[in-house]
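Title: Prediction job returns without error message
Component: structure pipeline
Severity: low
Priority: P3
Assignee: unassigned

Description:
Job completed but the reporter wants confirmation the result is attached to the right record. Sequence as submitted:
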Amino acid sequence: MQLVHQIEELQAQIRAWRTSGETIAFVPTMGNLHGGHLTLVERAKELGTKVVVSIFVNPAQFDRAEDLAAYPKTLNADCGYLAKLNTDLVFAPTPESMYPTGKLRTKVEAPGISDILEGEKRPGHFTGVATVVCKLFNLVEPDIAIFGEKDFQQLLVVRQMVKDLNINVQIVGVTAVRETDGLAMSSRNGYLTPEQRQQAPYLHQTLQEAAQQILARGKVTDEGFESIQQIMIGHLAEHGFRPEYFEVRRASDLQVPVTGDENLVILASAWMGKARLIDNVQVFLKDGRIV
């Protein structure tokens, strides 16, 4: 496995692979890897002949300086995990190489989908995400890029950016990987105390309960889902969470569902102590399925 820090070295290897006809599958990460990330890498290995993983703690997507400062830097351990999976190349650039002027001058935005839900709670976050992902796509030139569906809104932002800018890469989403008790794997779970960790799976349980209620209705009506949303926010608060939002949205664009919509997603964000947890479940009304 190659560990590359310099852009020029990365580009030289990409050119060589392109010349030999390799299919490049790419997994962008911020490091501090867990089982969810490694599942993305395993999927990349199924889809490409060469796998590139980036590890870059992107300062442009943090809306709180303290979050950036506290984010764990675990490059050596991360490389150990990736080597065991026979990853071909790890690209770990410095902030100085990614942002030579020290700040974002040219920015990529995905209007309409990046300023709601997570975007509303974290202003500028998705501009930072879209910009750095666009830069990484330009550098790695992947045929395929793999993203987790736990960050459902991020996945849609990337899909919209790729479509609107005609970036020649296939975006593949992978279902969220969960602990045995249902908690979605996340680097943020490390901020939970043992007691909070026992309580945290209730977020997913609440999403599942809401999904079952929506399936029981069988369709989207003019009544909407406000009552379900408010009840679930109350349940979370009763169980020690500080809920930020609990929303039923259309899965294709995260807009409020209307009569006739069949594919929905329920998205939630809530604080548990120092950990800000996000999760979602998808609801397919036509075939009665919850993912």
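Comment from assignee: result matches the submitted record. The domain at 187-284 is CATH 3.30.1300.10 (Pantoate--beta-alanine Ligase; Chain: A,domain 2).
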